[in-house]
Amino acid sequence: MSALKLPNGPKTHPWVQTYQWLTNPLEYMEACAKRYGDIFTLRIGPVFSPQVFISNPQAIQQIFSTDPKLLDSGAPAGIKAPLLGDQSLLALEGKPHQRQRKLLTPPLHGERMLAYGQLTRLITEQVISQWQVGESFAVLPSVQTISLEVILRAVFGLVDGPRYEKLKQVLLEILNPKQPFVTAMMFLFPSLQRDLGSWSPWGKFLRLREQMDELIYAEIQERKQQPDPSQTDILSLMMATRDEDGQPMTDVELRDELITLLVAGHETTATSLTWALYWIHHLPQVREKLLQEIDSLGKDPDPNAVLRLPYLSAVCSETLRLYPVAMLALNRLVKSPLEIMGYQLNPGILVIPCIYLTHHREDLYPQSKQFKPERFLERQFTPAEYLPFGGGNRRCIGMAFALFEMKVVLATVLSHWQMELADSKPVQPARKGALLGPGGGVQMIVTGKREQNQAVRETSLV
Q: Would you kindly state where each structural domain of the chain is located, as residue ranges?
């Protein structure tokens, strides 16, 4: 073992590596894994420092359990957050990160979370009631609408009105840019972040962010002036929470965490739902098995019962395994010399657990390119073998909420409508900004109402 020897990796110029990573990440990572094994080094922009990719479960377990004082994420590990803000859970490290995580955990778990099941179902019913029998539609925009409504109502606690509409419009513009590749490049390369007026990409982003902040801070101020103890949305719970010193979260902390929950929970959940609906309708045996299980709960099932359905859980798990929306767990920065898989890594090196490659290990997931929910009924996987939400002190804090939302939306859609794919050709994954989504989207046709739910109930969220 040599003190400074990094794991092997491509010898091509860092610009070439960056280009391959940006344009074709899956094939590039798979080619590297084939050639170099469970650990390899890439140099991808903007600074081209070595980044060690790891897909070995024992090594990932070591990363997840190493003391954050020696190995941690956050801004020093390159997690730059021009949209999320410096007080975002993703950007913080050390004690501030621990404090914030402690404050945010209760509102997103347990009884608190289950209260949002009914709301999620009502929102889903309202959106899907606009679908027409015989019409073809793109799945992603529909589930994006559901996901955004759930966040605005369950997380922000907003009700219909001018602020709700304005915030929705601004957020949609920020979250679904017209030129996703340009936006991704701007976030990756700080040198492109230049405000050349409202017509320039960065200038436009800054002005949208300003509008969004104005609306969010106005909402926080209003809540402070007119507190309503009966409100159960996540913002209200965050405002009521106190740390060990009895201190509340500041307005900036509240804003940054709200945006983090929004960004981390909107597009990711919508993309996962799109994949799930694709696989369920691509494989008739999966659909039949799932419908039997959902129907066994009767009409209008309790969301808590939906949460516990084993086959539905397996379908969600397999969806997140096959094409995890996040290909990588958060970067970790080596702060103190660390040995991983026989390599001595010096401070300053970035270590990256690779979710996608781990989920495609044939020793863990035989026929890994096949969609087989049964694998999750047949065995349990450790947090270092199955990690769609990352792990360790950086595991996604909204994991329970996201899975619950996914299950309620799928059960509601499937029990109301009969659908089929508009196109029989297989859908391939493609990079969508930082995420992995269905290339070209998924088109479906509504073929009829499910007999069990002849009438879509007229529901009101007011």
A: 14-157+231-453
For the chain, the first-to-last Cα distance in angstroms comes to 65
Write the DSSP assignment of 264-301 as a string of letters: HHSHHHHHHHHHHHHHHHHSHHHHHHHHHHHHTT-SS-
The pLDDT tens digits of the residues spanning 140-161 come to 999 999 999 998 888 888 888 8
The answer for 429, left when phi > 0, alpha when psi is -120 to 50, beta otherwise, is beta
DSSP symbols for 413-435: HHHHEEEEES--SPP-EEEETTE
Pairing mode of beta strands 71-72, 417-421: unpaired
Q: What is the mean pLDDT of the chain?
A: 88
DSSP state of 328: B
CATH number of 14-157+231-453: 1.10.630.10
What whole-number distance in Å separates Cα of residue 17 and Cα of residue 401? 36
Distance CA 403, CA 309 (A): 12
Pull the structure tokens for residue 166. Answer: 């304005």
Q: What is the pLDDT of residues 9-66, one digit of tens each?
A: 999 999 999 999 988 999 999 999 999 999 999 999 777 789 999 999 999 999 999 9
CA dihedral (68, 70, 75, 78) in degrees, to 10, reads -120
150 with 120: CB under 8 angstroms? yes
State the residue for tokens 């359905």: 309
Q: Which amino acid is at 20?
A: Q
